[in-house]
Amino acid sequence: MSSLHHPSDETLVRLAAGMLVGGPSIVVSAHLAGCAACRDAVGLFEAVGGVLLEQTAPSGDIPDGLARVRAAIERGPEPATTQRLPRRPPNLPNDIVWPAALGHSEFANWRWLAPGIRVSKSIDGELRLLRVAPGKSLLRHGHSGLEWTYIMAGSFVDGRARFRPGDICEVDGDIDHRPVIGDEEDCICLIAAEGNARPHGLIGRVHQVIFNT
Amino acid sequence: MNVLATHLDLRFTRQAFGFGAGRMSKANDPLAAEFDRCVLAVAASSDREAFAELYGHFAPRVKGYLARLGAPLNLAEDLAQETMITVWRKAAMFDPSRASASTWIFTIARNLRIDRFRREKAADTFELDPSEAQDHPPGADITMIADERDERIHSALGSLSAEQLTIVQLAFFEDRPHSEISRTLGLPLGTVKSRVRLALGHLRTLLADLQ
Ligand SMILES: [Zn+2]
Q: Which one of A188, B28, B83, B139 is most buried, by most CB atoms within 10 A?
């Protein structure tokens, strides 16, 4: 399954630089797992980071730095912190590929949002899974910031292109679009956004649409 | 959102990052291969001298890099120390065919910095499986590939225009790069996005054969 729609170079460079964090970095990482081209690009941008590190003027010495590092090494590793157990929302299709990037994410049960539309939020609030029935269309307005959608199952068309499993749909503030879900099966996608706290992302807007029309 | 980025010193210059004359390129610089060798020696035999050499070179640079991101001095030192402890503990995961020592240490510092500020270990999610990283034994010839790549990147960055170099650097040092690019370069926000696309596209074209 090779993807047709990738994150922007800017997103990949921010990921490599450590500037893309939280939900967006997880959504983009889900795509990277299946996309060698984007993994290579991130590797290249990480090497740019290595060169920038190499070119950084050394700062003053750290007092007793090496001795303290050696002492810490002698003491042995810190006890591992307990990780939250990953939890998927129930009743996912059997053949769905659960991204490894979601290894630490815990999702709530599906919540009904509108006929044919359900949502499951990660308990840290960083991520949303959206499950929409075939043929449905979502009214969608502009965005307050960047938003990334990773398609796990099904497909949608948003006027520009058709997005399929493995693809990333990256949209930014000035794009208005109106995704229509493909006929074949439920569309399940993983969404994260950056930007204002106004009811953001696809879900917020679905809410707006439902309660305003 | 990003505590570290708020006190960023934006006076990016070629000089500040050593892209001007005077610094040897990596091919003429035996240091890159030497640092690779040091990490491999730490992995193979817990070589303390090799580690001291790595520490002497990288600890002050990681500290300087984090300070450039706006980290207060004690935090920059703290994370630089943690970075070097991780270099020791994870030396066996270093694969010189995939990344040079400086790139590998950059990613360690990056991940530790993210961990410090986020509950989620998001950065780990795109770290490759170490078992996959070890599928070819490192050798001197393979080591050359990643070091040569760094050298190419170094000269590609040096051949970007001042504006494009600033754009690339801001992507690494700014949490919200667009407004800073707009401010630093005096460009209207509306044109920043296309300039970023052009700058990164240009960089990737210069390095196309490396991907
Ligand atoms: Zn891709």
A: B83
pTM: 0.84
Domain containing B201 equals 2-131+140-207
At position B133, the amino acid (one-letter code) is: A
The number of distinct structural domains making up chain B is 1
Asked if the C-beta of A60 comes within 8 angstroms of chain B's C-beta atoms, the answer is yes
For residue B35, give the CATH number of its domain: 1.10.1740.10
Check A26 against B125: CB less than 8 A apart: yes
How much of chain A exceeds pLDDT 70, in percent?
82
Say how far apart CA B178 and CA A24 lie, in whole Å. 17
Of the candidates A13, A58, A68, the beta carbon closest to that of B200 is on: A13
pLDDT (tens digit, 9 = 90+) per residue, B45-61? 999 999 999 999 999 99
Ordered strands of the A156-157 beta sheet: A162-163, A156-157, A180-181
Partners of B59 on chain A (C-beta within 8 Å) are: 62, 65-66, 69
